[in-house]
Amino acid sequence: MARTAEKTVSGATSHGLSSTLAVSPPLCASHVNSGRTGRIASSWLDHVPHGKHLPGPSQAKPWLAHYPKGIPTEIDLDEYASLKELLSLTCGRFAEFPAFESMGHAMTFRQLDVASRSFAAWLQKTAKLQRGDRVALAMPNLLQYPVALFGILRAGLVVVNTNPLYTPREFEHQLNDSGAKVIVVLENFAATLSKVVASTAVQTVITTQVGDMLPPVRRWLTNAVVRHVKKMVPPWQMDNTVAFNDVLSIGRDLALDEVALGHDDLAFLQYTGGTTGTPKAAMLSHGNMVANVLQVAAWVGRDLQDGVETLVIPLPLYHVFALTGALAFFSKGTRAVLIANPRDMPDFMKTLDRSRPTALIGVNTLFRALLDAPGFAALDWSRLKLAVAGGMAVQKVVAQRWKDATGVPLVEGYGMTESAPVAIANPVDIVQWSGQIGLPLPSTEAVILDEDAKPVAIGSTGEIALRGPQVMQGYWLHPEETAAAFTTDGWLLTGDMGVMDEQGRFRITDRKKDMIVVSGFKVFPNEIEDVLALHPGVLEAAAIGVADVRTGEAVKVLVVRRDAQLDEAALLAHCRVNLTGYKVPRFVEFRSEALPKSAIGKVLRRALRDEDRAAVDRQAPGSTATPGPRK
Amino acid sequence: MTADSPRARLVTLRDGRQVTVRAVKGSDEAEIVRAFDRLSADSKYLRFMVHQKKLNPAALEAGLHPVPGRAFVFVATVPSSDGYEIVGAAQYVPADDRETGTRDSSDSSNSSESSEISDSRDINDKGRVCEFAITLAEAWRGSGLAVHLLASLVRRSRRDGYRSMEGHVIAANRPMLALARKLRFEVAPDPADATVVRVERQLAPAKRPWRVQLDAS
Questions:
Q1: CATH number of the domain that residue A593 is part of
Q2: I want to staple A307 with a disulfide (CB 3.0 to 4.6 A). Which of A135, A333, A393, B21 is the partner?
Q3: Cβ atoms of residues A422 and A296 within 8 Å
Q4: Pairs of residues, one from chain A and one from chain B, whose beta carbons lie less than 8 Å apart
Q5: Range of the domain at B18
Q6: Do B187 and A598 touch (CB under 8 A)?
Q7: Do the beta carbons of residue A484 and residue A280 sit within 8 Å?
Q8: What is the value of ipTM here, to two decimals?
């Protein structure tokens, strides 16, 4: 396996554009207030109360006694009526301070306010979008992202976050499912989009170039280098496109109709995989997002000062963890330095050196990559106050090395797209890695439930379930999936198995949901198997997660061939056409026998994993590698 | 159909819809294939626990011709414009060896070995444990059809001399787990794999008549 692995690793990660911009995740966001959405949300809410709607008896919250000093136990949801209000109040308050910075160029809160207003007006008046319509974003971390994001929200529309590295197949599904009418795409990815845009509801494509928000000379230079020197923009042809900067200049002269938004209005359709892997969108309302922004800000904000902090964001903003984290810091007037491509380590290092962050958010994989990077030791971390990790389990060795190198602990948070996402987190004053995911955030309840959805005794294992104002409204157009995600008492089932101790600290022990978490991005075996089955040379196939030092878990596929000539290279090439980078299998094993099944024909993955583990042990005696179940 | 196959029964479900429940016949082949193709990818996944695009020919063959006394397949049908349509199926087969749980006897495309093993075991130790599976078309979920099918499997397998019935259920498949509990299956998480739950029910001949009645309800 290891031999196959080496070969595949390079193959799976080095394709085309993926190495040029952005990491690679899938979670999505967008919002709506159409009658359709409203009905879905409220109809099932009638049956499944959750969060603030819950009348039930209040749960004992042992964790509250263990909050660090100064952390409130509850947040005041009424602080902001919507993300739009948060934007407008924050931009007014910090007007001349830098809000976002990319490629050495900063945009102030005022400039963001002005540009997002123009963008919003264009969406309303030129694109003629109605309140609740969806607008998709397909961009890495560039200044255009916050402009478009806030523009969409201000116009009363819903953001659909997409991963710009999606393959046509993946784009098509999300655009059709969300019904997005407009998409903003970085030109580097327009060729991919052009293959499917005609079969979606998209009416207008807004294209942007990497340097669009930079000052004129740098803009021209950057765009020319990207296009002509680095040749990162494959030729594309689409109807009904408009340039991002044209949208801003046209929108500047258009009136913006103010839309009164409240907590119940939809803000994001954030895509995630379902139990069996079919991507579906969590409906995150303005109230959900405001709640989690306030919760995260309350949790990490004690030692942060308004208007003076510098946050570096190497995790793409279309990932819900980066998104909410960025908004929480934004609300405190933080300068957020956007990293478009953290894989370009020398450039990333230069940015870190120049910006001297006081806070950093990322995933374990990224912190590990930083620690391993040449030049890391020379960086000055004296200003750093906070390093937050989410999306996947933090490894002990990474946490220790990080603490040793920077003097600041790596604080792990836990949550899911469906909870906007942070629900449980380690206190920011921890001194070292605990192996726990921490305490529930303010105004959040967490519980361990048994198979009958009854709370278990302290110290017993069960499924972690959540309630709180950040918990989603449901799945977009999937009322049945929504009903299945909640207990009758309104607890959101996480699919993670865990334990709570007497202090109310939570620890994850296993995963109930069949998924693989690669560098913080969820991969569902069903989707991988679906793609493999499309290849005529495949008779049957199963995807499993295997432990990986770098990415936490990695995708391994076991394939029974129909065509004996089928080789790994051909299979991976097929995968790359249909799956974005992080989903592409890292390990391929061809099997001469049918996959192991139970008598009645069910493929028991435990048997597959056991076999895989046994094989690893044979190859590397004493190896401790085991498939990691943790998120 | 064997001589002692149950007669087809017309069942009225909770929502008023009626289905016919009967033993599978060899002539159901085309309808079974169609029914499988109509299932969503998710439903197929819940049944096979792996992405399954096409029904495996060996599995189809085994499902159409269950060995009398060892295995059984019920199908639920409704009339359609061109005859009938299959909206649900439930089956049991002799379970694998508990410890390995990996041998493939129902749809093996590869093994003369496995049929040899299952044959010998069935002769020596007539199916102490059977494994079941139920598949329903999406539109028939929550109608009570699954309860009826599982109760039928329990009764039938007991007649075939099985001592217990087990099943593997995706842990997130809460409707199926609720159904298993309703029919007094014990639900035990697999300590080695939280994504799958094992359900099991003893089939010792009913001592009290009310048990039988409950099953039939």
A1: 3.30.300.30
A2: A333
A3: yes
A4: 132
A5: 9-216
A6: no
A7: no
A8: 0.81
